[in-house]
Description:
Blueprint: H1 2-10, E1 16-24, E2 29-36, E3 42-45, E4 52-55, E5 59-70, E6 73-84, E7 92-93, H2 107-117, H3 122-129, H4 133-148, E8 158-167, E9 170-178, E10 183-189, H5 194-205, E11 215-218, H6 222-231, E12 236-239, H7 241-259, H8 270-273, H9 282-292, H10 300-313, H11 320-335, H12 340-351, H13 353-357, H14 359-362, H15 367-383, H16 389-400
Amino acid sequence: MMKELFEKAIGISKPWFIDNLKFDEGNRRLDIHINFEVGTRFEYISEEEHISYKFCVYDTIEKTWRHLIFFQHECYLNCRVPRVKPEDNKIRQIDVPWAGKSNGFTLLFEALLMQLCCEMPVNAVSRLTNADDNKIWRMLQCYVEEARKHEDFSKTTEIGMDETSKRKHHDYVTLFVDFERRKTMYVTKGKDHTTIERFAKDLEAHNGDRENITDVSCDMSPAFIKGVEKNLKNAKITFDKFHLVKIIIEAVGDVRKAESKENEVLKGTRNIFNKNRENMTVSQLKYLQEKLELKGLRLKTVRAFHLCESFQEIYQSETKNEFISRLNKWYLWATHCRLEPMKKAAKTIKEHWNGVIRWYDSRINNGILEGLNSLIQSAKSKARGFKTFKNFMAVIYLVTGDLDFIKVNSHYQPLT
């Protein structure tokens, strides 16, 4: 009766059966020994002919798989796995129905591990399940690779790209995001122009067409621009609004840093000028309005800050002609403001004028990508970094790739 109960729990059926159960109370371990009926002929599918044949057992090999926990006991399945010898005289091991995609885990245990990995760092999953973290990483990489085989990019036309790092300012990877589906399509090492070439090849490997890409949002990296022009010839570049604003904010910061050496009122105000008014605290907004924006002070930093606010207001234009007109007026103002950092920022924008104006038609920006990047940074913080690029990229796909792992393992059920 006990054996039949475990057979149903594990989900095995003829010709497989449970031969023996062993409890180790001291080590809190349950070993389930599985056997097969004598005389069973096992199926083997020829890779060349794609035809299924049945063969008698040639010999067996002992295998063990980690399974789910039963009654607070770690459970292991043990089996004499049959091997067959087809007509080519090459001995092949039979696939058993409970074996997972990675070595040493059952499908059910892998489904549990995948669900946990979506919610917590791998090292935490390792401690919780007492499974080797290196094995979990290999399983995670295998599932990501298998799930990506089912990806279909045939309808992708608008993408965003940006880089992020495994460690601060070191070891960069470039992310490519599908704007419509709000998900990471592709991750690759580096941030040079060859990343776009690799993306284009991966796109076509998943039913996509590089000629179908009409719009790309990115920063003003010369490498990205070169890569798009070379590999995505039908794409028009929209320079990301958030990166443009970041350049201007950095220029405001340079003005503030220089002026604060001469004016004590600017000491400790960096966090004020790094924000928009709506994001300031009550005390920060009060200090800006009552201390810094006084007409008598005429602070250079405040003038620079007003330039930054004016630039962002351009994106509220109701027509393209208005957008271009306001952008031209802003450029004229910035280049005659006698603030060198602001003039430099304005000239940088002028050098990329068409890509800035392109926003009005495409209406795309890397806001979605920035949101996905925040999920990546959160995962990176929880894991306290990643040892290898493979691990880092696997987690990026896991948390932002919206991969269908059910196609890899039907037992997998997302927790959210």
